[in-house]
Amino acid sequence: MKKYLMTGGLIVGLMMNLSMAQAIDTKARNMILMDYTTGTHLFEKDIEQAIPPASMSKLMTVYMIFDKLRDGSLSLDDTFKVSENAWRKGGAASGGSTMFLAIGDEVRVDELLKGIIIQSGNDACIVAAENIAGDEESFVKLMNAKAKELGLKNSTFANATGLPHPDHKMSVEDLAILARHIIEEFPQFYHIFSQKEFVYNNIRQGNRNPLLYSMPYADGLKTGHTDEAGYCLTASAKKGDRRIIGVMTGLNSNKERSEEADKMMSWAFREYDNYTLAKKGDKLADIPVWYGTDKTVPLVTQEDIVKTLKKSHYNQAKVMVVYDKPVKAPVEMGQKLGVLRIEIAGYDTQEVPLVAGQTINKMGLRAKFLANLKYLVSGEL
Fold this sequence. Notes:
The protein contains nine helices and 18 strands. By secondary structure, it is an alpha+beta fold. It folds into two domains: 2-13 and 276-378, D-Ala-D-Ala carboxypeptidase, C-terminal domain (Peptidoglycan synthesis regulatory factor (PBP3), Domain 2, Sandwich); 30-251, 3-Layer(aba) Sandwich (Beta-lactamase), CATH 3.40.710.
């Protein structure tokens, strides 16, 4: 095997969890900070524990609506009718967050989305569930099926609202993954999360996300609060080319949630950055080819390789191209021929596949004879 050493600031487009000691702590009961681009976990605290997510689980209800809009089975102009059940379970008389819908209202889907995202309306969630699936119970089955499809390993849904239920649980890791899906899959709708207020039935309600008011580059997603869950937040902020997703639970007050969110998100932006190791198609080495119509084949990456690192570790990366020499023709474009190995103190070693950048055909018999003769005389391929 040949190792070709490279150094400097480079990326790795892999999901990579940091194994080093975390230099900051949080008052939150559960917390995750995730880099949006690479999926790297910048901070972890009980991230897989299935806990009451309160209204943060409305993100799954929102995802389900977005998904229907994407496949064309629903449009923003469609209207849903408000049932007595939705009004009783999610209206003002229930004591929870509400959009203040009235029985019999015909509500546009775009208004319901704002009622869920901005006003956290339980009534809006139930109306959406009933009109999409027939009843809330059937909608919940769809939510649980979609959760498995999205890889949410520690989530089970019992309702569309996030109201307390012993079987309604999510982990902060799952919430971060779900937020990442929403941002990536539905950019045409994501702007709703940054809207600071919405008026329905002449009642103005403000967005409860504290970062929208304290952090200039925050742009979503969803708060939550119950006695069991405490004050919670799933948040996203984008600064330049970088986006951080943070999820926290168990804070003692709205003020503490706001302060903790600002502190932890600011820390993530300050301490970490993304570094580009190679761009898709970059040639990292030429490998000699035995009996090939070309003497060498370029070794390239199949994708951008990006890595999230502590800024203080930027210059500690050791990057090696590792491959067998030579390779025997024929060689197919895209054939795996080696790896890019990244070693950084305090991180797990990562290996990224490298492939042939072009097809190399096998020599004909006459050319092969001459190549063998040359090798016997000079020792060269």
